[in-house]
Amino acid sequence: MIGQSGYADVARAAVERVLDAEREAIGRAGRLVYDGLRASGVVQTFGTGHSRAVALELVGRAGGLVPANQLGIRDLAYYGDASPQDILDPKIEREPGLALRIWELAEIGPNDVFVIISNSGGNAAIVEMARLAGDRGHPVIAITSRAHTAEAATRERADAGGGGGGGGGGGGDTDASAATRAGAGADAGARSNTGAGAGANTSAGSYPGGRERLAGLADVVIDNGAPYADATLPLPGGGAVCPVSNLTGVLIAQLLVADVVGRFLAAGQAPPVYRSANTPGGDAHNDALLAAYGGRVRLGDA
Fold this sequence. Notes:
Elements: H1 4-21, H2 23-38, E1 43-47, H3 52-57, E2 68-71, H4 75-78, H5 98-103, E3 113-117, H6 124-135, E4 140-144, H7 146-159, E5 181-182, E6 186-187, E7 191-192, E8 200-201, E9 220-223, E10 231-234, E11 240-243, H8 245-266, H9 282-290
Helix pairs in contact: 1-8, 2-8
């Protein structure tokens, strides 16, 4: 039966799964972010659709990291010459070449680290942004659903007449790029790094089924635990309601912040963290930290 209790049970299980299964991956992501920030880098976040909410969670937030910038489709109108009407189509995220247009409007530094969020991991803009970052030597951290990735690949194989086999609905680490991780946290079969931030793609980043996926292009993959298509409570006539990807995505984002700040403190360094603008001295504190990054950190509507 669909109701508050049913979703509460699902949400609790999803949160516990992240806390139990993803802490090691989040720690490896935290090391990449810490190293990048210590080298004057910025965290570049990117997501489309509702994943924008998770990307925004890391940017311009009291108690969050100052050197964090959100890239977005909106940038085409905010900083480029596109009209708002040009970017209102929700399917624009599937448009080839879109990520490059967004990239060219930003000030990307050599030590920037990318956190890219997508539950499906397959839309053109997401895949292209991950590939652009990886090909230019930036570490890429993916927050995505392994279950969706595996199931989508299985369905694509079936659609292509390739059989299927294995049923991807269970997700987990059964797919090609979820093999043993190495080095700075690169998924074997996905990308190979010669050092933090020096990763060059060594494969197509694709899963069985042929399409490129975000998880296959990332140095560290953090599984948000969402099921195929995200919604969790099945409806009697088909379909489902109540997604969990943003719930767990926000949790992952804050676990990542905590890990990074902990590394600064363990090294005896002051972490670059926002204070609330609604507290005395908050604006002055934040402005002083932001000044070091100039136009590289654009708060936009954060």
